[in-house]
Amino acid sequence: MTPVVEVEQIVMRYPAARGVGLRRRHLADVVAVDGVSLAVEEGESLGIVGETGSGKSTLARIMLNLLEPTSGVVRYRGEEVTHVRGAQLQALRRERQLVFQDPSGSLNPRRTVGASLSDPFAIHGLLPDRAERGRRVAELLEQVGLEPGHASRYPHELSGGMRQRVGIARAIALGPRLLIADEPVSALDVSIQAQILTLLRELRRELGLTLVLIAHDLAVVRHMCDRVAVMHAGRLVETGTVEDVYRAPRAAYTRELLAAVPRMPQSSSSSST
Amino acid sequence: MNGAGQSRLVVEDLRVAFDTRQGTVHAVDGVSFDVAAGRTLAIVGESGSGKTVAAMTAMGLTRGARTRIGGRVLLDGEDLLTAPAERLQELRGDAIAMVFQDPLSALHPLLRVGAQVAEAVRAHRDVSRASARARALELLEQVALPDARRRLDAYPHELSGGMRQRVTIAMALANEPQVLLADEPTTALDVTIQAQILALLRRLRDELGMAMVLITHDLGVAAETADEIAVMYAGRIVERAPAGELLTAPQHPYTWGLLRSMPRLDAPVGAELVSIPGRPPSLVHPPSGCRFHPRCPHVRNRHREVDPPLATTAAGAGHEVACLLPEAERRALWARLGAGAVR
Is residue A266 part of a domain? Predict the structure, then answer.
């Protein structure tokens, strides 16, 4: 079967420099992504894990054509889309959406939730009828566990967890096939994290979404994903099923990463300390 | 080396309230704990539970016209809450020190890190610039800052997050404090760096015999580092026990919720997370009765009216819980819930 998204030999370089004006000196380029090939299969849930600066978010943005790679190929359903522009790119946006880490940074503070959720329809010229658009917004809010009444609220009136629900509602508004969630719960409290992760799992099941989850938290990826790709310093060091990679990591870096996760004592009903 | 068993820091019935336009926020509402030399207490809670305010108040950092503070914070018997500002200046950074979550905002962006550490020394010790700088180097080596000698002259922006946190820890340790308050010291760091910093804090606590209070939202971090864990909810401690006991035989429904909502590496694949419904309450108008009752799956009518005190359990050995359910029932419930969470 053709993968939903496939990237081949992706390289992303940024020029680096130091100083300003006449004292500006060019340094060696920063290579954010260094020759990564990866395929996301239809219906699967793939986790990309790595630490700060590993290139995981850059790779995700390249997969969505939000960044153009220095070299390499991006394919969507078998068709090369690396350099698509205009109407073709717009059509692709409907199919593939992003959920951001910080919901307060990705929602306009001066517009109501309802207005923000109507944007995708306005941009893509869908549901021109106001009443119909309002009904669809209400439906979306219910789908993510909020109430239709939340449409008239401003982002600051909502808690972090509720704002992330709005972020997810906006991402699924146009009925995408692929959702990339970039650290969707790392800004949230533990009890709220579980609510959002459960919501993402339910939506995936209901809508048959393909999910790419970018995370630094190995336990979150293990909980959410079928397959995992481990990135380190711009390279892919290991991919495999969650079960295999967590049970028997092959790359030294994966072992190091797993060993660093704090261990909890096993739970028991009797107190044994 | 200080004698173990003796409490270095004793907090008694601490209350902190802020007057705001929305009303009085009761951020900390009757919190007591104590930490002995060479021991670590982890205070675990979510945003707004009052854990950071409690620590900042102990350091005298919340004083102000709109703050009302009650209770006692005893550092080796001396009450910090009533100490004059000049006395606090003497103690802070000397007998008691704090490490903050974000090392970048805890460091001066325009000063070299060696100078900042040396300043922490010279603020409390009458030593020459040269010997303060020598001490700064010694401290940066003690916190295992790679290539410390060269980095004395680095600016904060030239260091990684983990290295910056090592610098702020070096500053906190400059005068070998008896008590160290660490507020989410690893939250901004990657997991491999987090493991290094936690190991560093454990080593320094043992070497210097410090009493350490570790504030964290992460039960895993608490499990790795603490001898004792106190769980805070809505300005109160709702459960307190030796770390192993709290994590394996918890008795408060909120602690159960935290444990069950956390994805774990040792959970069965495909296991469901059980989230705590609702969200933390307002601290202006906290719920009546048990503060957790609106989110508690085991709530009874009586719990909406009676406010449970933190009381010793039959488990003994310093296990206290603020819950109105009979203890036998709590044990039976966790036996069922805990088995579902982890096998």
Answer: no
Search chain B and give the residue with CA nearest A271: B249
Q: Which of A222, A258, A270 sits opposite B263 (nearest CB)?
A: A222
For residue A60, give its domain range. Answer: 5-15+28-258
Tell me the pLDDT band of B340, cut-offs 50, 70 and 90. Answer: low
Stretch A118-143: mean pLDDT: 94
User: In chain B, where are the structural domains located?
Assistant: 7-226, 253-266+274-341
B7-226: CATH architecture: 3-Layer(aba) Sandwich (3.40)
Tell me, yes or no, whether A42 lies in a domain: yes
Cα B166–chain centre separation: 18
Residues of B in contact with A51 (CB under 8 A): 190-193
Cα-based distances in Å from A220 to A136, A164, A183, B284, B336: 31, 16, 10, 34, 24
- Write down the ipTM of this complex: 0.82
Tens-place pLDDT, residues B89-137 = 999 999 999 999 889 899 999 999 999 999 999 999 999 999 999 999 9
> Is pLDDT at B171 greater than 50 in this prediction?
yes
- Reported as a pLDDT band with limits 50, 70 and 90, residue B149 is very high
Mean pLDDT of B205-212: 94
Q: CA torsion, points B187, B189, B193, B194, in degrees to nearest 10? A: 0
For residue A265, tell me if it sits in a domain: no
pLDDT at A34 over 50: yes
Q: Is residue A251 part of a domain?
A: yes
* Count of domains forming chain A: 1
User: Which of A189, A172, A223, A143 is CA-nearest to residue B217?
Assistant: A189
Structure-block tokens of residue A7: 């990237």
Residues from A in contact with B at Cβ < 8 Å? 51-52, 159, 161, 189-195, 197-198, 216-220, 222-223, 242-243, 246, 256-273
Query: What pTM does this model have?
Result: 0.89
- The Cα-based distances of A226 to A41, A56, A196, A210, A249 in angstroms read 11, 18, 18, 11, 15
Q: How close, in Å, is residue B245 to chain A by CA atoms?
A: 6
Burial (Cβ within 10 Å: 0-12, 13-18, ≥19) of residue B82: exposed
Q: What is the pLDDT of residues B48-61, one digit of tens each?
A: 899 999 999 999 99
CATH number of the domain residue A210 falls in: 3.40.50.300
How close A243 comes to chain B (CA, Å)? 8
